[in-house]
Amino acid sequence: MTAFEDRLRRAAARTEAALDAALPPVGEDGVGRLAAAMRHAALGGGKRLRGFLAIEAAALFDADPAGADRVAASVECLHAYSLVHDDLPCMDDDALRRGKPTVHVAWDEATAVLAGDALQTLAFELLVDPATHPDAAVRAELALALARASGVAGMVGGQVLDIAAETAGAPLDADAIAALQHLKTGALIGFAAEAGAILGRAAPEDRARLAGFARDLGAAFQIRDDLLDVEGDAEAAGKRLGKDAAAGKATFVSTLGVEGARARAAALADRAASALAPYGSRADALAAAAAYAVTRRA
Amino acid sequence: MTAFEDRLRRAAARTEAALDAALPPVGEDGVGRLAAAMRHAALGGGKRLRGFLAIEAAALFDADPAGADRVAASVECLHAYSLVHDDLPCMDDDALRRGKPTVHVAWDEATAVLAGDALQTLAFELLVDPATHPDAAVRAELALALARASGVAGMVGGQVLDIAAETAGAPLDADAIAALQHLKTGALIGFAAEAGAILGRAAPEDRARLAGFARDLGAAFQIRDDLLDVEGDAEAAGKRLGKDAAAGKATFVSTLGVEGARARAAALADRAASALAPYGSRADALAAAAAYAVTRRA
Known about the structure:
With 298 residues, the first copy, chain A, is mainly α. In chain A, 73% of the residues lie in helices and 1% in strands. Chain A has a two-stranded antiparallel sheet with strand order 1-2.
C-alpha cells in the first residue's frame, strides 16, 4: 500500500465512522427496517473519494476534523442516495453495487425509493446541524453549495442528460460526454472539496480552486472507470463490468479509443495537480489523489 | 367565499408565485423536460395548506413577507416531492393527483423519481439561500427543522409505517393511526407553521406552540379527508375516492365510525384553535383554518 492509499484508507475509515454515527439505528419495526436499507446503501463500500476530498480540503484550510468528518458523511449520503435511485429498475436496473445486492433487490423498490429519499434528507441535516460548525453562516453556505451541486443544475441534471442520451439517435461526442459528466459526477465531487474549503473559511478564490481541482480529478477518475470497464476484472470492481459497451453507451473509450481516453485522463490529472501548486507540499495528499485517479487498478 | 377562504386563496396565490419563480424553466432539452415534470407536480393544485400556515405564522411574528413566500414554496416543494414518490407504481400506484395525471403517468417512472429528488433538493436550497433571510442562523435553523420533519424521524418514517401497516395481519387501531399520521403528514404541517415562527425569530415556546397547533390542525384535516373519502365526490376532490376502503386500509372512519371520526376531528380542531389563545385576534386567520379543516366540502 502506498502512502497515498494509506491516507485514502484512513479518510474512508473516518467517513465510515461518521456515517455510522449519523445513520438511524436498525430495528425490527418499519423505521428500523428502512434504517437497515439506508445503512446497506451508505456503509461498507466504495473508495470514499468524496469523503477523502472533504476531509483533506478541510485539513488544508485548518478546519476542525470533527466537522470535516460530518461533511464527508454528508456528501457520501448524497452520493449513496443517487446510487440507490440510479440502480432502480426504471433507471439503470442494476442488481449489484459495491459487491452487494442493490437496495431494491435486497429489499424492494418502495424501500429503495424511501431509503434514497431519507439519505438525501440526512445529507442536508448533517450540514446544518450545529455540531458541524459553530458558525451558522458556514452551515448555511455548505447546504446551499450542496443543493446547487446536486439539483437540476448539477447531479440530477446530469442524470437527466444521461437518460436522454440513451434514447437519442446518435452517440454523444467527447464534448457532450464531458458536459454530461461535469454535471452528473463532477458537480458533487467539486462540492466535496469545496465543502472542506468552506468549513475552513477559505477565500472565494480558494473555494473555486478546490472545486475546479476536484472536478478535473473526478473527470479523470471517471475516464479511468471507463477504461477499467473494458479492461478490469469484475471481482475487484465489485460491480458488473462491460455494461457500457453492452448498452451501446458512449464513453471516452468508445469515442476516443483506449489510448485517446488515457491521454485525456492524464491531461485532466495533470491540470488537477497543477491547480494545487499555490499550496505547496501542504496539498501533497490531494495532489497524489490526481495521480492515483489515473493509475488505480480498481 | 368566506373571509377565511379568501385569505387561504391569497396565500395560495403567493405560494404559487414563489414556486413559479423558484422552479427551473421548461425547455426542449432533458433538464427542461425535467423542469416541466417538476412544475406539473408542484404548481397549479392543492389548497396550499402548508404554504398558508407558513405565510400566516410568519405574519403573526412580523417576518418579512418575501421570505415567508420562499418558505411557503419550500414546504410545498417538499410536499410535492413526497406526493410524486408516493404515487409511484411501487408505492401507492396512483394515476390521478389534483385532477391531473401523476408524473409517472404523464412522463415515466424515471422522470418521476428524478423530479421528486430535485424537488426535495430545491426545498432545502430555497431555505438556505440568503434571499430567504439575511441572518444565516435563521436559514440554518429552517433547514434543520425541515430535515427533522421530513426524514426518517418524520415524514419518511410515517410513510414506512404506512407501508408496513398494509402488510400487517390486523388493521391499525386509532392510536396507531394517529401515531402514523403524526409522522406521515403531521411533522411537515407542524414544520410549515413553525417555519413561519422561525422566520419571525419567535421564542422557542412560540415555535413549539405553532408546531403543536399545526399538527392538531393537520390531524383534523386528515380525518376530514377520510370522511370525504367515503362521502365526498371525486370531481371536487380531484383524485380517486373510496380508495382507502377498497384497499382495506384502516382509517379513523373505519375504526371509530363516521360519528366517532367527526367527534375526534372536532376535538382536534378545538385544541388547535385554543393553542392560539395567547395571540388573541392577531391569530384569527390561523384559528379559522382549524374550523375550516373540519367543515370543508373538498
